[in-house]
Amino acid sequence: MPKHALRRVMTATAAAVGALALGLTDATAHAALDYVALGDSYSAGSGVLPVDPTNLLCLRSTANYPHVIADATGARLKDVTCGAAQTADFTRAQYPGVAPQLDALGTGTDLVTLTIGGNDNNTFINAITACGTAGVLSGGKGSPCKDKHGTSFDDAIEANTYPALKAALRDVRAKAPHARVAALGYPWITPATADPSCFLKLPLAAGDVPYLRAIQAHLNDAVRRAAAETGATYVDFSAVSEGHNACEAPGTRWIEPLLFGHNLVPVHPNALGERRMAQHTMDVLGLD
Known about the structure:
By secondary structure, this protein is of the alpha/beta class.
């Protein structure tokens, strides 16, 4: 074969091999993540339509933030989030036929997200119910909920929820040792101070609005500390969710109010909230 022909063959071969190598490198770099979503109703998107028909007990939405993340990144999602879940439901069956959430994890799991802790000690439901009832009875005056319950909610968070969060995150790490784990905080439910125009939607006494917000801040800080102590990434919503609480107008609020809201489940993220939770999580994790 003439030398110039041989050179052309060798050049073409080298180009083909280079292109193949580049293609393999590109495919590897963009390999789909094995993504497992754990957590409670804020993770599940309970109240956001459409509802996942495969498990109606968990009231899981197919438009929740795990699905938004998976759609945006091309990740292979295994979504075992479940409304009303507590940290204990990571290792026990929450309902008959609903496996412990940690069963979804494995050594091949690349990414785990979770929002959990708000249902431990029934913190959210007890605080909102107690403060809402007290607010109605007081006509929105004073701080009857704080006066009655004092530090009891905070004490339970510190004594029970915080260690339970650490244990749960350690269990996640044990089951998925190679995964990146993101523990999400809860977006603000209430404004920083009372909004009289919101009383019909969120019937809290003026002095109990900052009280309830401080309880939520304490819970989020417990999640943050547990994440820091177990090697997880904490996704903080305290800044980005400011001005998007349940007192804001539709189209602005991320959380639906207790009364006269547009979701099936009150005091939970709406579809906008789930999308914003997804976007901020991707921003924090540096996901495309």
